[in-house]
Design brief:
4 copies of one chain form a homotetramer. Chain A is 35% helix and 18% strand. Chain A has 355 residues and is an alpha/beta fold. Chain A is elongated. Chain B binds chain D through residues 2, 4, 7, 27-36, 38, 40-43, 61, 63, 65-66, 75, 240-242, 244, and chain D through 2, 4, 7, 27-36, 38-43, 61, 63, 65-66, 75, 240-242, 244.
Chain lengths: 355, 355, 355, 355
């Protein structure tokens, strides 16, 4: 950390900072100039975290120069992790397609959508049983009944599934049936939910808050990791900007940036970021090209009947193109499309990545 | 609502929209031009909410022209509401000062900060027992013990208090002791929390999400109102923008805009928006001038020891100026500073505002 | 400045930075920790400006901790400046109302609007003869003819006027007739225009770019000051955010922040920021309360006929309220409303503020 | 366009709107509901552009539903254009690499950088002789001398070059030597510059304003087209958001969105958007994958000596990878890398694209 002193700061002000840093076990180095004095703090960031240096007399600014996360940091685990969902890997060596309906509306719609997903080459299913909706008057999801539908279809198709959990009280129920728990964009800083989801012991798909910085997003993963659960996959899904022509602005740069900071896999949601069917294929190509470890895509057998986010769902014709696009671009990117891998799962993640 | 058809849309596409609208009880009027056809939908917005018109063939865009909220809408209750916290009003006729420590750190610090608040003219106390922190390594609040300290000091000073609740499981505990429940900026779209807080029956202070639109913020209030609890106070606390010199950008225009859309009181948090002590007084003046129904301010007896947000807390010397500033500007704004009003509370809010 | 080295940086990398800094006459102090090395640079910022330290081997980040402007900095001139437009002051002791039509459409409309402005208590007129319009098909202003109309009305009413100049080639013509030159939000970083406007020797009204940081805005003022012309007034006019309910988001905090960084006067444009007539009065009150040195307001005798920005123009009835509001709130803020001051202008600015 | 009337609007208010629309030759269709009346306007948008409908009594909102541009619109020219720079095409069938130094600093540096560009497969050179810099104390470019260096190197290497022009007075000089004129991000709404650049008759590279919407960007292209010059290439270069870890946020979705609205080619600048060397290759891959018609890249023989934007310039080692990456991904995207095409240029653009 760096403490910048005001031009008017006294020697005593500088000494106070040095002493406070020393008391928590850090070291302070002073760069004293004519117009300005800068104090470099060296030591463990968590030592300084509780020091209210900003409020010390004579202090103009306090600048953090190292990252506040540890467990998920690439410095702690220089080798990228692979997270296993059932027997399907998500990691830097593969490219994983997760697909399914945005919301579970009925057994038929869910089965049809999931079959479409499988045909397109998906190896993990997605579907929403509990939906966070901005209006209390909108369809709120089928809840536990939706969860059962997903579990049935998942068994039928022999594919694991991820589903969103929106409140701590539901974590146990959802974790009992789902293979991976999703924390949505609006809950990225719902810290109690992060803790409960971490404790459930299942892999977690953590969407970036639609206005979270990359550091805040990784810090949310640290919350989960702090419970002892390192099976976290980060998902970029578009950020809120002033541009009105897309629902959100997909921040593709977030993929290489996050991959340079954390060992966790990073995937992209091209459906919710653009909010338009026509953008799903181009953004999927961009996701593969920029180095994402997977994509998660909405499909719907009849989007004009969808109770949620119909305009962005891919339909049958699109899926043939999707399959082809994924094959072509993963080839250029030198990635293998992930498929269920018998026998690999047992302990593989733990051994290879974190020992 | 307005449905804009693509230039290439067929007559059949237009007819499909008209029929779908008719089936849910709405009326559709067609404006057919050479290059473009526009369909105006007339009726109750909730009728159309579930129609996935965006995904209909030939549809280019669907534009909502009326507001999606009802219970909190100014159209439903043209007379502004007063929300009573204990026997203190927050509403359009008064200006209410809420003040206290950002976080409850100890009994002494809390008592000292609350006395400072009272001396400055506050009529409602604030203090955080449960803190949503972006780092799992940061001080998380004293929890229930902090709640007890607040309750004790509140009794001593004979002032009601507001405190944040961060997860549904804590609502009952907090509601048993606090006079008003705060939903923080990171939880504005934690829908389950909104519902539980609404059901607790206490007044609610709803902070605007730091990247929520005004419509989303009012819609979050509608969630609470939907449980039957209309005692909601909206709080603007700065929005996230690209400007780095302030923690957030205080959106003062949000006050008159929200007051033109809803009957709920709207207050401002000048401490968290600017993030700097020097900005608290100028932003408080701006808050009064722009028509806010109150402000909520951080104070701390020794901010250089604060475990949370020290740099923005007012100290003793500032409070004399704060008191003077509030008196001078409420006078210019023709507002009375709110004080506890014996006898008024019993049913007053219900009767005057919503019968 | 602070140079943050990568964990992997070698001693040689650190030495290279130290040497480069020494060569341009600065001093480098090293804070060497186990995980991280930080180098504090002390000296004149312009020394370091051309050093491409970011590209040095082993460098992770370079952080600027002091401000890049000098001539307009409060550190250079701790006493706030007063800028004189004709014989009307804009500065920290007064509150100045600038008002007039957004665009000069005809002699009659301009005269009527300017009389309205005068009646409301304005002491400086505003009006656009050259309009920067986002569409080539929109009304582009009357140009030189509009300038003549403004000059005539200005003489008639004995009030100085400010008008926008949009391209370097027009500066001479405009400066020959106007009392103050306006640089609009879209031209804040049109550096050639800034230079020409500075050289014209007339006072300059510099609007903040709608997406400029406060530092960039002040740096644009430095461009003008660099030509030897320190008569610059900064004008906050709303910034671009994701919030759709106002045209732009008025950043009131920018006023105290800019006033703490520069000696230049800072005013607010409540008409263009909100974009709605109903917001002009509340935002004017907020402007006075937050400490702005003036406001600039659109008026129009018949806004339903306006060729530009009609929806935000104040009409006759509003102006009586405007006058009253300004008197009431400047009184609370302990400011005097600026009026023409015979005899004060001659050299006053130079003498009082900058000797 | 759609006019939304207030609930309180009278029949007379509605009639006034209908009559005003009729007077300019448009047609108005009324959708009258219990709570709300909507008026659909049909006709040419430019008819309505000057009608100040927002200021009409009873009008709540005016919503534009069709695009304000014509000449550059895909509806006017459904076939995508190819713009020729010298004998090199930029268009939908090819992928064009433009590369060179950010700033021309000396003849040696320019020649070395341009050779690197050629070796990497570039077919058009780039280089800045006139630099728009945010500080008056920063290197401002070599001006005309830089232009001559570029012209010499361009001749030597037999490659056309693009260079930025920052003010109308320089257009003639620059157009006499350069093969393509660049309008930079800060000048995207410098309307006088757009006109002059258009009139110069050379192809134009129009960078998106760092906070411009896609519509505003295309509208700026319309300004140029309005002078009769349709040889405009759009360049996405990152937009300003709250995310601090990249210089700007590259908006890849802008490519397919702009390509669906205009017939003009759209390229990406992966150097300035990310602002970091490590991001240039991943963002170049994403650019090709999302369908961009080219990229423009900074190279520097010794970035640690660069006077401008050193941290993002590619160096020798990167260029071999760049070449390989471009070949691999253009192959996946079914695009041919653009090369000079003898004989095609003469009139080709006009004939194939716009007859």
């Amino acid at each position: 950390m760096v403490v910048v002193m005001r031009g008017s700061a006294s020697d005593e002000d500088v000494t106070k900072v040095i002493n406070a840093v020393g008391e928590v076990g850090g070291e302070a180095f002073v760069s004293r100039g004519k117009h300005q004095t800068i104090i470099g703090l060296v030591g463990d960031l968590t030592q300084f975290a509780e020091l209210p240096l900003h409020a010390f007399p004579g202090v103009e600014d306090v600048i953090r120069v190292s990252k506040p996360y540890k467990l998920v940091s690439i410095e702690t685990h220089p080798r990228p992790s692979t997270v296993w969902v059932g027997d399907v890997p998500i990691g830097r060596d593969t490219f994983t397609l997760l697909a399914g309906p945005c919301a579970v509306e009925s057994e038929d719609q869910t089965r049809a959508a999931c079959r479409m997903a499988k045909d397109a080459g998906a190896s993990i299913l997605r579907g929403g049983a509990y939906k966070p909706r901005t209006s209390p008057y909108a369809f709120q999801g089928l809840g536990e009944q939706g969860l059962d539908i997903l579990a049935d279809v998942s068994r039928e198709l022999e594919m694991p599934f991820v589903t969103e959990v929106v409140t701590p009280a539901d974590v146990e129920t959802v974790a009992a049936k789902a293979d991976m728990l999703q924390v949505g964009t609006r809950n990225m800083q719902n810290f109690q939910l992060l803790k409960e989801v971490g404790l459930a012991g299942k892999p977690v798909l953590l969407k970036r808050g639609m206005t979270a910085t990359i550091d805040e997003w990784i810090m949310a993963a640290e919350y989960i990791a702090h419970t002892g659960n390192l099976q976290v996959v980060l998902c970029e899904r578009g950020i809120r900007t002033y541009e009105p022509s897309t629902r959100n602005t997909l921040d593709v740069s977030a993929v290489p940036v996050a991959q340079s900071l954390t060992h966790l896999p990073v995937i992209i949601d091209p459906s919710h970021s653009g909010g338009k069917r026509d953008l799903v294929l181009p953004l999927t190509k961009a996701a593969i090209a920029v180095g994402a470890d997977g994509v998660i895509i909405d499909v719907h057998p009849r989007p004009e009947l969808a109770l949620c986010d119909g305009p962005q769902a891919l339909v049958t014709d699109d899926l043939i193109k999707l399959r082809e696009v994924i094959l072509r671009f993963t080839d250029a990117a030198d990635r293998e499309v992930a498929t269920p891998t018998a026998g690999k799962q047992a302990g593989a993640w733990g051994r290879s990545a974190h020992v």
